[in-house]
Write a structure and sequence with these properties.
about 200 residues; alpha+beta; five-stranded antiparallel beta sheet
Length: about 200
């Protein structure tokens, strides 16, 4: 089942999504981990079904600074793995998570249009955060932003953020980069304002 979560905040020295993950530990009892880089933290509670030794999350690409959280199944992962390998991007393990990571490291946002299946993904670029889920919401992703502080949080379950947000949102503003998914893209927050989301299209 698994769960993903994250936090973007300028007001905290080390923004953490640990509390959100703890609230969803029933979804991922095998491992719980987060990565904090600057004002952004992303984390995952993992139920290790596929590649229990090789699919630790969040998964990070040292060369690009991109990291991903992933919940779900990429049904065309074998095909993507072959295409990536032909372009020189080799997946070292069998997990879908690594396929997602290598795809975004290789193709940027265009990778979203290549994913088929049911999924909820957080992609942390060095300068922004991209949230992505299958268009039908089979793998859910809820989010909320504090208008006073600009603190933004997301999680696989709305109940995980309900204690910190009066109205967790389940809708996504759709980006034109994919017909099979819905996206929310946020620039890294500046000191003069809160993160902004991608415009409706």
């Amino acid at each position: 089942m698994c769960a993903v979560a994250g936090c973007v905040s300028l007001a905290e020295p080390l923004p953490s999504c640990g509390t959100l993950l703890h609230r969803m530990r029933h979804r991922g009892p095998d491992a719980c981990r987060e990565i904090v880089r600057g004002p952004v933290s992303i984390g995952a509670a993992r139920l290790a079904i596929v590649a229990p030794q090789d699919g630790a999350q969040p998964m990070e690409d040292a060369a690009t600074g991109i990291a991903v959280d992933f919940n779900g199944e990429i049904t065309n992962a074998p095909e993507l793995r072959r295409v990536l390998a032909a372009e020189g991007h080799i997946c070292r393990g069998p997990s879908d998570t690594e396929v997602v990571l290598r795809a975004f490291a290789a193709w940027g946002d265009a990778a979203a249009s290549q994913l088929s299946g049911m999924f909820a993904v957080a992609v942390r670029y060095p300068d922004r955060l991209l949230l992505l889920r299958d268009r039908y919401g089979i793998k859910p992703l809820a989010f909320s932003q504090d208008q006073a502080t600009g603190r933004f949080i997301f999680a696989s379950e709305a109940s995980a953020i309900a204690r910190e947000a009066a109205t967790p949102r389940l809708d996504f503003q759709t980006s034109p980069i994919s017909r099979s998914s819905a996206c929310l893209s946020m620039a890294r927050p500046s000191s003069t304002g809160s993160p902004s989301s991608a415009p409706d299209t």
